[in-house]
Amino acid sequence: MINIKDNLDKIKAQIQQACQQSGRFIPLGELSPQSPIVSLLAVSKTKPASLIEQAYLAGQHEFGENYLQEAVEKIAELAHLPEIVWHFIGPIQSNKTKQIANNFSWVHSVDREKVALRLNQHLTDDNPHNTPLNICLQVNISNEESKSGISIEQVFSLAKIVDNCDKLTLRGLMAVPEKNAPKASYEKMQQLFTQLKEQYPSVDTLSLGMSSDLDNAVAHGSTMVRVGTAIFGAREYKV
């Protein structure tokens, strides 16, 4: 039997410990805009709405989904939860941008101009989730052919395009480093994030780190870690 609340508590304790070890610990009562907080994004792909609701009732309100059709069904089923926030974190097909724009508050995986422009075009003024749409640019920091994402050299040109879209808000960067990625990959993401923040006041999010590399990501400035299995149990793979 999965105990969602216990799992969430363990992950939050791990995040806090990682912050302490990297010198990012914020003593109680001393929070400030200058002291970044590492938030937890619960990756709920392939998991039933019932488990997501358990997590919500345990205090977790932000959830990440990879598969659009599955996610849309769960979003509708859980529409009664007033503070739930949905993040799309999977690869984006341009013909799916309308559904993504009008069902999610965040999109972490923007890696093409066409996708950004279509998200902006399709976001309706009566979007019930959030207007404008919060955008992170996905960076292929390890240059893996099997993964989506832009190169380091493309970050600032795509950032400019997103920033010029009236219904999008550029919030930051996302990356999925290769397994056992060298420290240099994390350092480069941290550097890119710092440079982007200096150029765009809206940028405040570095979506970096999962269960296996959480400590390393937090040590290099991550403000949001994405954790699934450690919360919900082993993934049920789609056939």
Automatic annotation (TrEMBL):
<feature type="domain" description="Alanine racemase N-terminal">
    <location>
        <begin position="37"/>
        <end position="235"/>
    </location>
</feature>
<protein>
    <recommendedName>
        <fullName>Pyridoxal phosphate homeostasis protein</fullName>
    </recommendedName>
</protein>
<keyword id="KW-0663">Pyridoxal phosphate</keyword>
<dbReference type="InterPro" id="IPR029066">
    <property type="entry name" value="PLP-binding_barrel"/>
</dbReference>
<comment type="similarity">
    <text>Belongs to the pyridoxal phosphate-binding protein YggS/PROSC family.</text>
</comment>
<feature type="modified residue" description="N6-(pyridoxal phosphate)lysine">
    <location>
        <position position="45"/>
    </location>
</feature>
<dbReference type="InterPro" id="IPR011078">
    <property type="entry name" value="PyrdxlP_homeostasis"/>
</dbReference>
<dbReference type="GO" id="GO:0030170">
    <property type="term" value="F:pyridoxal phosphate binding"/>
</dbReference>
<dbReference type="InterPro" id="IPR001608">
    <property type="entry name" value="Ala_racemase_N"/>
</dbReference>
<dbReference type="Pfam" id="PF01168">
    <property type="entry name" value="Ala_racemase_N"/>
</dbReference>
<comment type="function">
    <text>Pyridoxal 5'-phosphate (PLP)-binding protein, which is involved in PLP homeostasis.</text>
</comment>
